[in-house]
Specification:
Blueprint lengths: L23 E2 L32 E4 L4 E4 L6 E9 L8 E6 L2 H12 L3 E8 L3 E16 L5 E18 L5 E7 L11 H22 L16 H10 L1 E2 L2 H9 L3 H28 L6
Helix pairs in contact: 2-3, 2-5, 3-5
């Protein structure tokens, strides 16, 4: 089933959609946070959880502790869905501009109930995915023409099991997803996460070099995150490759996700190394 999508305005400072077909790693700490954003009193009001979502899992990607409260896998709830040409990960921050009428209706409903909706990836080629991520509105600004600027934070992942209705906006029954234990438990998740972080730092260094920026060492990208939330953070940096991001989001094994991210980063590093070598031999070709 194909669903029409709301695209952020190209001129909006809240733009989050990237059309670059190449892997574009974005490492801004502001795009991934472990603590709630402050709520401006004039634009945000905290509401109690809607009863339909009282059993919702909450994933806190904290610096010193990783807490999860995951309901049983067969726990089915209803969730309003927002198909977008981008992928939201748990812990990631997503700014959006809401101007299409049906999604303005959805926002009015959310502000009176739960403040949470499902962000689900869609494009013209592959259609709408079955797996998405809950976005919780942490800031909002309502304009005079009834448009909204919102900032939401990624929470738990879900899988769509049944479409409940399509008008005025999409609502589906979903079940929550969580990562299963990896393999036989003998592999070193911490070691793999450290390797991925090292690859990320190398990619940043070479990217800076190719863009004429100082080749300073990247700081602490891991920020003491446990392997699972760290794997979500890594996936959130792969801007410009939404289908790969969607594949990472759908995986239910942290080890497999980190291995795939490591391979992607290694391939990117090989490409950047070759491009850097060409730049050294033919400096004028980079201008």
């Amino acid at each position: 089933m194909a669903f029409s999508q709301l695209l952020p305005s190209p001129s909006s400072p809240y733009l989050t959609h990237h059309k670059n077909p190449t892997l574009n790693l974005s490492f801004s700490p502001s795009n991934f946070t472990s603590t709630p954003l402050p709520h401006p009193n004039s634009h945000h009001r905290r509401h109690h959880r809607h009863r339909k979502l009282t059993s919702t899992a909450t994933v806190h990607c904290q610096s010193e502790k990783h807490e999860t409260n995951i309901p049983p896998q067969n726990d089915v709830v209803e969730l309003p869905l927002f198909p977008l040409p981008l992928v939201l990960f748990p812990g990631a921050i997503l700014p959006l501009q809401i101007f299409e009428y049906r999604y303005r209706i959805m926002m009015h409903t959310l502000l009176q109930t739960d403040l949470r909706f499902g962000v689900i990836y869609t494009d013209a080629t592959t259609g709408t995915a079955d797996v998405g991520c809950v976005g919780e509105v942490v800031k909002h600004e309502r304009l005079v023409d009834d448009r909204f600027f919102i900032i939401c934070k990624g929470q738990e992942r879900f899988r769509v099991t049944r479409i409940v209705r399509t008008k005025p906006y999409l609502v589906a029954e979903v079940v929550w997803l969580e990562d299963r234990p990896s393999g036989n438990g003998e592999e070193d998740l911490e070691g793999l996460a450290s390797e991925v972080e090292s690859h990320m730092k190398d990619v940043i260094r070479l990217s800076n070099r190719l863009n004429g920026k100082p080749e300073k060492e990247a700081g602490d990208l891991r920020r003491n995150l446990f392997p699972t939330p760290f794997s979500f953070f890594v996936g959130s940096t792969f801007e410009g490759a939404p289908r790969e991001q969607q594949a990472l989001l759908e995986l239910e094994d942290t080890m497999v996700r980190l291995k795939r991210e490591k391979e992607t980063l290694r391939n990117t590093l090989n490409y950047l190394s070759a491009a850097s070598a060409v730049k050294d031999v033919f400096p004028s070709s980079s201008s």
